[in-house]
Amino acid sequence: MTSPTTSPTPGPTPKGTGTLVDNGAPRHSRIMGVGAYRPARVVMNSEIVDKIDSSDEWIRERSGIISRHFAAEDESVIDMAEAASRQALEHAGVSPEQIGFVLIATVTHPYQTPAAAPELASRLGSTAPALDISAACAGYCYGVAMASDMVKGGSADYVLVVGVEKLSDFTDPYDRGSAFIFGDGAGACVIGPSDTPGIGPTVWGSDGAQRDAISQKQAWTEVRDSWQSAQADKNVWPAIGMAGQTVFRWAVWGMAPVAQQAIDKAGIKAEDLDAFIPHQANIRIIDAMVKQLKLPADIPVARDIVTTANTSAASIPIATTRMLAEREIPSGGLALQIGFGAGLVYAAQVVVLP
Amino acid sequence: MAQSEQEILEGLAEIVNEETGLDTASVEMDKSFTEDLDIDSLSMMTIVVNAEEKFGVRIPDSEVKNLKTVRDAVTYIAGAQG
Q1: ipTM, 2 decimals?
Q2: Which residues of A are catalytic?
């Protein structure tokens, strides 16, 4: 196909008779409310260990996880997203008709198409534009950054951002490296206009060269091939696999500088923070990150992984909602949040807590 | 600047001590990281990253699984410093 830059003939000239409307001066954005949903069923380590020849103690030592929540079989990503969204809208004091955009960060909505976001919007009574973000455990922070820019740019007044995962559907219960790590849940926030800056500059990026470090085990086309040849075995299902040590190294020594940059770009110091809410990947990663960042000991750190496991895109808003609800962190305070995961991708920003 | 195997062993023992609290004297050449020193995969990665910094070498993730004993690590670091 011919490239526009190499087209041999000069194209038509523009009419130049219309000027696009100026939709207003740039403005600030902030998180107005948060919400979370954890499914009812609590799954203890004892329920996981037999299939991976492991023990409760082994899982606790390596991950910090004691229990996690699993969604019911008939409970979908959209069901969980709806529960978290309603709480966030209520907290924000924003009605569904006011929503200008719906962003869902998820990698476990089981339809390639349509996306989860339009159905969520519809259930809430909204016809706002809606789409899903595939940025794994960084998805929520990606969503916050994009929503913030939408509000600042004027393309939406209020944006609903949801991180939701039903990872139990995409976990291989026999995989020793990942069977115990994941959980299900949803978290959401509403981002709207503000008189003062409420969301700091986002430090984000990707390293696609490490795409195999956390990945669906095979492509859907390969699933089709296995299915067609009727050689189905437990490897047909494209569960998520992970190279634990590689991810650990990247997460701790690669992401601590990203978190530091987010602090620097926000124009604050680590000691100004009222909360550190990293993606809940593994307690060892969280502890090592705190050490690398040399965070003052009195700053509350999210350690929800102990009872929620790793809920990917949902982990940060779930922890934020709980910490606010339990008065562990102050409304109006500054929180450093960082998401990182499959891609590999990452995003970090300092936000004002709603 | 290449170091002797004894110097590398001593430096490595300090790193292991810092990560696990194990006595530096227990970090001997023929000890296995997992079986004798009871070091798990994530602690091992912390030791590897600290060793990279201390000895000025690069130890790829793919190499880490081959470092079963203290001697394996000392030999690898000495070779990488070459």
Answers
A1: 0.86
A2: 137, 279, 310
